From TrEMBL:
Residues 1-26 form the signal peptide. Its main location: membrane. It comes from the Bacteria. It is a multi-pass membrane protein. GO terms for cellular component: plasma membrane. Belongs to the ammonia transporter channel (TC 1.A.11.2) family. Residues 96-489 form the Ammonium transporter AmtB-like domain. This is Ammonium transporter. GO terms for molecular function: ammonium channel activity. The chain crosses the membrane at residues 96-118, 130-152, 193-214, 221-242, 262-281, 293-310, 322-341, 353-370, 376-397, 409-432, 444-468. It is found in: Cell membrane. It comes from Herminiimonas fonticola. SUPFAM superfamilies: Ammonium transporter.
Length: 491
């Protein structure tokens, strides 16, 4: 049955991608982009350079001003359409920083998140939990290159990108001529680096969701769910918020590194998944102690270090704003850890190691949307508020509502993301971020993200359940998913 389910899920994924490629091939070719010609002094008078014409989204360099032909009209490129530029325009410092940041953010998922989650589940489900993060990394890498990047970062409409960048169409590097494409969002780095950097965000977001339904979801269902969720939930929200033509971005919603796109999106989806799939067998009736908190501490430490690439890297430049983002990230994380620790100490008589690292993650989550907009005061307040709010979300709220969010994805990521997004509207400093913010705009962005994520996740889970089923059998759950789903176990 597991083999048939896996085959079905992969077949659905292949058919979905094939459908998208067919649509893309049917799209009419976009108009060519024409950029202003270089100075005529650079061209010999008796031998004007011929125009260099390439299919959009590449540049067309018009002929020299000395030619007798009428000059071609200059057409401005769409806001984030990639442009072919000379390699000399690339900033080596910015590029080096984004290359390092990309590696740091990928390091957050594998092995950071994999270890963080694996330490909190029971021994019989450790390998399955780690496999989720690894499989998501592989699957989303392909989805992002095939269609995800095009849907997120093509200025097709305010609501969703187009299909003209499917399979990264138009992204090129010509070593002989020294030209390469850049995105207008990050004009000082190669577009290939920008694609990779954004890919790591697309990877970690659905990987976070897996903690909500840990220890009970079929592996085949996971693969199908992640495929559909990445295309129909993550990419649209990323387009709304991070693509300058997106409707939330145009409205003034601020999200520097992923408070709404990553954390609220993943946290709300995790809650919906936990409710629809149902609680683990014995939840609330028998103890479910973490397998190895040493793994969790190591994973949390990796997340903390990797988060500097997550937040400071989102400046897409090695500049003062990146430095400020790194500073406030460190501050908010430390304060978040301490505030969770002290409130737990006061309420339960002892500070737990799990509480300390959970508080650190809550601070990291909350500062994410604000990191490029706030100063020291804002970071301190956001970190403290996140520790308190996420402690409440992972304990009192969870107990009151009775849902089984296995690894507190909603309590930490959704609650922390909401706190950070809202307080960005309070503490944003124009001299740092260069923009004004308002609490109302931030609240609107939060509400839209919560509603969209919840509704779409419920629909996708319903589709997956109808096709392959969501949950393993009771016998498999009692035996453990490591043996039942993968035929392996830890010693």
């Amino acid at each position: 049955m597991a083999i048939r389910s896996t085959s079905a899920s992969m077949a659905i994924a292949v058919l979905a991608l094939g459908w998208c490629l067919n649509i893309a091939s049917a799209q009419p070719a976009p108009p060519e982009t024409v950029l202003p010609a270089a100075s005529s002094e650079a061209t010999a008078p008796d031998a004007p350079a011929p125009a260099l014409t390439m299919p959009a989204p590449m540049i067309v360099e018009p002929a020299s001003a000395n030619t007798t032909a009428a000059p071609e009209p200059v057409v401005e490129a769409p806001l984030t359409k990639p442009t072919l530029v000379d390699a000399s325009k690339i900033n080596s410092g910015d590029t080096a920083w984004l290359l390092a940041s990309t590696a740091l953010v990928l390091f957050m998922t594998i092995p950071g998140l994999a270890l963080f989650y694996a330490g909190m589940v029971r021994k019989k489900n450790v390998l399955t939990t780690m496999a989720h993060s690894f499989a998501v990394t592989c699957l989303v890498t392909i989805i992002w290159v095939v269609i995800g990047y095009s849907l997120a970062f093509t200025p097709n409409s305010p609501y969703i990108g187009g299909l003209d960048r499917v399979l990264l169409n138009g992204m090129d590097f010509f070593k002989e001529t020294g030209k390469l494409t850049v995105s207008e969002i990050a004009p000082t780095i190669p577009e290939s680096v920008f694609v990779m950097f954004q890919m790591t965000f697309a990877i970690i977001t659905p990987a976070l969701i897996t903690g909500a339904f840990a220890e009970r979801m079929k592996f085949s269902a996971l693969l199908m769910f992640i495929t559909l969720w990445s295309i129909f939930v993550y990419s649209p929200v990323a387009h709304w918020v991070w693509e300058p033509s997106g409707w939330l971005a145009a409205r003034g919603v601020l999200d520097f590194a992923g408070g709404t796109v990553v954390h609220i999106n993943a946290g709300v989806s995790g809650l919906v998944a936990a409710i629809i799939i149902g609680p683990r067998l014995g939840f609330g009736k028998e103890p479910m102690p973490p397998h190895n908190l040493v793994l969790t501490v190591i994973g949390a430490s990796m997340l903390w270090v990797g988060w500097f690439g997550f937040n400071a890297g989102s400046a897409v430049a090695a500049d003062g704003r990146a430095g400020m983002a790194m500073l406030v990230t460190q501050l908010a994380t430390a304060v978040g850890a301490l505030s969770w620790m002290f409130i737990e100490w006061a309420r339960r008589g002892k500070p737990s190691v799990l509480g300390l690292v959970s508080g650190a993650v809550s601070g990291l989550v909350a500062i994410t949307p604000a990191s490029g907009f706030v100063g020291v005061t804002g970071a301190l307040v956001i970190g403290a508020a996140a520790g308190l709010a996420c402690y409440w979300g992972a304990t009192a709220l969870k107990s009151r509502l009775g849902y089984d969010d296995s690894l507190d994805v909603f309590g930490v990521h959704a609650i922390g993301g909401i706190v950070g997004a809202l307080l960005t509207g309070v503490f944003a400093v124009k001299s740092i971020g260069g923009v004004e913010s308002s609490f109302g705009n931030q609240a609107f962005g939060v509400i839209v993200t919560v509603v969209f994520s919840a509704v779409m996740t419920a629909i996708i889970l319903g589709i997956v359940n109808a096709l392959v089923g969501l949950r393993v059998s009771e016998e498999s759950e009692r035996e453990g998913l490591d043996l039942e789903q993968h035929g392996e176990h830890v010693l």
